[in-house]
Specification:
This protein is an alpha/beta fold. It has 7 helices and 12 strands. The chain folds into 2 domains: 168 residues, Rossmann fold, CATH 3.40.50.1000; 70 residues, Trehalose-6-phosphate phosphatase related protein, domain 2 (Alpha-Beta Plaits, 2-Layer Sandwich), CATH 3.30.70.1020. Strands 5-4-3-2-1-10-11-12 form an 8-stranded mixed beta sheet, with helices on both faces. The protein has a 4-stranded antiparallel beta sheet with strand order 6-7-9-8, covered by helices on one side.
Length: 252
């Protein structure tokens, strides 16, 4: 697939964060976006009239910190919270008591097993076992037990992580909401992601005639693929160079 298939004036760009824009690291707080990727995002947003959004499992506060100085439309916690292109902040209502109990339970479980990390987000807790992959089965069993005890808890599995969230919202829901708003409305959606948590986004984009792109290996609903994050960075740079005025004039 060539960048010409996604003209900025006609495309709504949705991008995952970890594993797509930033590398996956043992401590999520230490992830970063390369300066050239930030510059490409900035150029692409300008070319697309602002129709570029990051759709992530991270909180919006974390995304803003890592994407600084950019301030893009964002969907955080798999769509539980969202900031529109005009700056309006939206968040699904969460039972505060259930949230406190979830945070306490996951925190206690992680604290008793060195190497595990409980990442607390609005309405959700992600249990990372990247440093203790041998504990995967135990982490998944623990999360399953919590979900059985409280049907409001939805499980989202990813690369060495299981997330327990008090919302049924998905990345597909977030993309659908953006597509109903300016400046995304009426454009062809494009979504790039690397993990199982992105599959709902791929499904939505496929169903609406868009372009879905998987970053890296693994089974997927996405209809296109690049080999790894480095290949996606090159692809993003090519998209951001789609300004016709910046291209050499054709030879006659």
């Amino acid at each position: 697939m060539l960048p010409d298939d996604l003209p900025p004036a006609q495309t709504a760009y949705f991008l995952d964060f970890d594993g797509t824009l930033a590398g996956i690291v043992p401590d999520p707080a230490q992830a970063s976006v390369e300066p050239q990727t930030l510059a490409a995002l900035d150029r692409l947003a300008a070319l697309a009239g602002g129709a570029v959004a990051v759709v992530s499992g991270r909180s919006i506060a974390e995304l803003d910190r890592m994407l600084d100085p950019l301030r893009l439309p964002l969907a955080g916690v798999h769509g539980l919270e969202r900031r529109t292109a005009d700056g309006t902040f939206l968040r699904t209502g969460i039972d505060a008591g259930a949230e406190r109990r979830l945070v306490a339970a996951v925190g206690t479980f992680a604290a008793s097993r060195p190497g595990l990390l409980a990442e607390v987000k609005p309405g959700s807790v992600a249990l990372h076992y990247r440093r203790r992959p041998e504990l995967e089965a135990g982490c998944l069993a623990f999360a399953t037990d919590l979900a059985l005890a409280d049907p409001r808890i939805r499980l989202v599995t990813g690369k060495k992580v299981v997330e327990m969230k008090l919302s049924a919202r998905t990345k597909g829901d977030a993309i659908a909401d953006f597509m109903a708003e300016a400046p995304f409305r009426g454009r062809r959606p494009f979504f790039a992601g690397d993990d199982t948590t992105d599959e709902a986004g791929f499904a939505l984009v496929n169903a609406t005639g868009g372009v879905s792109l998987k970053v890296g290996p693994g089974p997927t609903r996405a209809r296109h693929r690049v080999e790894d994050r480095a290949a996606f960075a090159a692809f993003l740079n090519a998209l951001a160079a789609c300004d016709p005025a910046a291209r050499p004039a054709p030879r006659r």
